[in-house]
Amino acid sequence: MHQDEEQEEPRLTLLLPPDAFLNIFEAGDPGTLEHDTVTAQQRHTKIMKQWERTISIIPSKGPHTTEWRDKGGWLVVPLDDTLKR
């Protein structure tokens, strides 16, 4: 190859469309960060209820548990050593 010739970048071609893949884990499934965060919230229900009043987090009561989220819809992470690990 000569110096004045441009080197062509290799092209990546997707062989299978993204919808052909099976999503094994959903966001709330055990072992996911979301599930672990909600479980930690349950361990710290007292502080989560205090935070409802002081930092305006929003409880979302489901059929089996309550989740606390901020106004943007993000899960609120409690101070929990197990979750940190």
Describe this structure in words.
The protein has 85 residues and is of the alpha+beta class. The protein has a domain at 30-84. The protein has three helices and two strands; from the N terminus they run H-H-E-E-H. The chain has a two-stranded antiparallel sheet.
Order of the strands making up the biggest sheet:
1-2
- Give the helix/strand class: alpha+beta
Mean pLDDT: 82
Query: How much helix is in the residues?
Result: 25-40%
Q: What series of H and E elements makes up the topology?
A: HHEEH
| Oligomer state of the chains in this structure | single chain
Radius of gyration, taken over Cα atoms and rounded to an integer in Å: 22 Å
What is the topological layout?
Blueprint: H1 33-43, H2 45-54, E1 58-61, E2 66-69, H3 81-84
Antiparallel strand pairs: 1-2
Provide the descriptors you would attach to this structure in a database record.
single chain; 85 residues; alpha+beta; 3 helices; 2 strands; 9% strand
Concise overview:
The protein has 85 residues and is an alpha+beta fold. Helix content is 29%, strand content 9%. The chain has 3 helices and 2 strands; from the N terminus they run H-H-E-E-H.
